[in-house]
Amino acid sequence: MFFAGHSRTPLVNLLAFVSIGLLFIILNSKSRSSLFAPLTTAPSKPRYIIVNLGIGNGEALEMFLKNSETMSDLPKPKWAEYHDAELFLFEANPYYNSDLVELKQKYSLQGIKVEIFPSTLVGVKNGLGTFMLDSEKDYHGSSSTEDNGPGMGPRKMTDLTVINFSQWLLMNVLPQDFVVVKMSIKGAEYDVVPHMAEMGLWAVVDHLLVDWHSFDIGGATPEEIQYRDDRAAAALAKLEAEGVKM
User: Fold this and answer.
1) Helix (H) or strand (E) holding 78
2) Given this model, what pLDDT does residue 57 score?
3) Which positions ≥6 away from 53 have C-beta within 8 Å?
């Protein structure tokens, strides 16, 4: 039964019901599509990255950032200049800590991205390692190896943080980045480079520049030295075969 003057109420109610139903269907459809649609993010730009292992007191960094002719052979992509690079600097020798901190402050104020890892050994496992400080020759003879060549002065042992370099690099760069690794780590390269090959670092490294130290490290036997050299050569061959430029 309907009251007089309200004969159109059922029609209005019906239209309202249909409208609400259609709105529910539309909203439900949109929520479903947004729920199951793949998450997308804006693609990040490739970065120009220089990783320097064994930066010392940072003199090489100064030359690099000044575009010195002595550094002109350092690889760079066509789409970037030297001052565009993000710099990651590792140095084990505590003697250079203050130099690195001052350099970071100086160039960070100029808008250059510089990250430093002072008093940090580069290795194949995270943990602690022994570092030997050479008190002579302005500490240039310091290293993590038992022997650093002839003519080294008395050395003092200290414990430093060791970083698994391959793991660190895989966690901090992308395949799209242009990555240059420059290495001068006083004999530790004979462990680090083979580990890079074992961990497939060709996925993220474009150029690998190694300063090899060929002296008899740690009083090794001729057989041990030959094994060390062969292992390093095989690692380099693998990395190069996979596209890493030397």
Assistant:
1) none
2) 86
3) 90, 122, 165, 181, 182, 183, 184, 185, 192
